[in-house]
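worker-3 :: picked L-aspartate oxidase
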Amino acid sequence: MSIDLSDLHGRPVIIGGGAAGLMTALQLAPEPVVLLSKSPLGAEASSMWAQGGLAAPVGADDSPALHLADTLAAGAGLCDAAAASRIVHAAPAAVEHLAELGVAFDRRADGSWRLGLEAAHGRNRIVHATGDGTGREIMRALIAAVRQTPSITLLEGVEARRLLVEDNAVRGVLAASDRGALTIATNRVVIATGGIGGLFADSTNPGGCFGQGLALAAHAGARLSDIEFVQFHPTAFDGPSRPMPLLTEAIRGDGAILIDETGLRFMADQRGAELAPRDIVARAVWRHRAAGHRTFLDARQHPGADFAQRYPVISAFCKMAGIDPARDPIPIRPAVHYHMGGIAVDGFGRSTVQGLWACGEAARTGLHGANRLASNSLMEAIVCARWVAESIEGVSAGPRAMLRADTMPPASDPSAVRPILTQGLGVLRDRDGIARAIRSLYPLVRSHGAASDAALVGLMIAVAAIQREESRGGHFRTDFPHTALSAAPSSLTRAEALAAARDIVEANTFARSALS
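worker-3 :: tokens ->
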């Protein structure tokens, strides 16, 4: 690392090299910023893998009001309507901005956007690039722009391990690199580290996305909100590869159906059928599999012979598995795909800790509620990056802080956490299963070992899940299968989650001793 770290003190620090982090850095230009990415840009970013595209009301038959209505319906009563309205109204301009940065979106012969349909959308409003390669194309353009922007100091292979906080205000970042520990004094930090899929055994996310940003925020004292809401994508490719390849919802938007090994279209009688909200489709697939069936995506009729042209990435990995989607049903199963909750933020991405912002999947803006509407996530990251940047620009660099010498935490390893969350916090949940997960995670958190940070995020999800005694969106309790008449966002700090978990552990210990 040839950079003089003393030159970086006082600059805003952005943690995360996905679409949210890259766009925030670009929006801050020409202000000098530091961008930390634990891997080479794009290597472990979920944005790179996004197939569906960006949802934006840009069609002649569409409007922000229609997009908002679909978003609120999918969110199952838990969206922040004002925040969602503000975001969807900004979506068309975000698409235009990406096009200006060089993203080659798919267009029709007349130059208009080629728009796709996905589940729970009432209009064709999904803007794609290279068919099913939207995320890759957006990341290509953003990475090129970042590397060409002199105000952005990019530190690849550098992992933030702790935020340094005093009096509920950020003072710096403690990070690890192949050349040892480094600290950057700053009063402005953005967490844009993506999701939590890597905490589960079956996920479409890169294995390196396991909630590190949430752990950073939790240790700093920030509130997390709605973290019990985990979205399982109903059509992950059912094979041995981990992470699991995704079969984008756009295929069902093109007319593909879900069948079992007998050819039965098992969702035909449900409202919306295969284009029902994701949580409904995921539960239907899960239950059909639990009844002893195999489940498949059947694209033989629609899109049929056009499949390879429409979805080249998916066609390629199907071919490697010996499957021709134009002739063969594709085996599928649900897998963790997206996290609706995250760091609680306001309309400018500000957390409950002074000087700490969050953007992208790591943030809970209120757009998604209990169940994200398909393709709203990339759009959210691009839109909100501008508002985060505007907020940061309004905060001056503070005087250089005298940073304390914190002990460097070990590198995180989520492998011990994956089987616990997979078993206890899957598509269908109940109190006994969630409580078992809490009792297993609690000692891992207290061990302060390699599993501790991942276990902390898992524990906070589990505590939020056990406290929500209803079923709503991506959180389904078989012991509380009905949706409550009213709902409020959940809210937890690290201290509150640990106290709740301790009570559950001690209650179980007392019950066991009483029986012995």
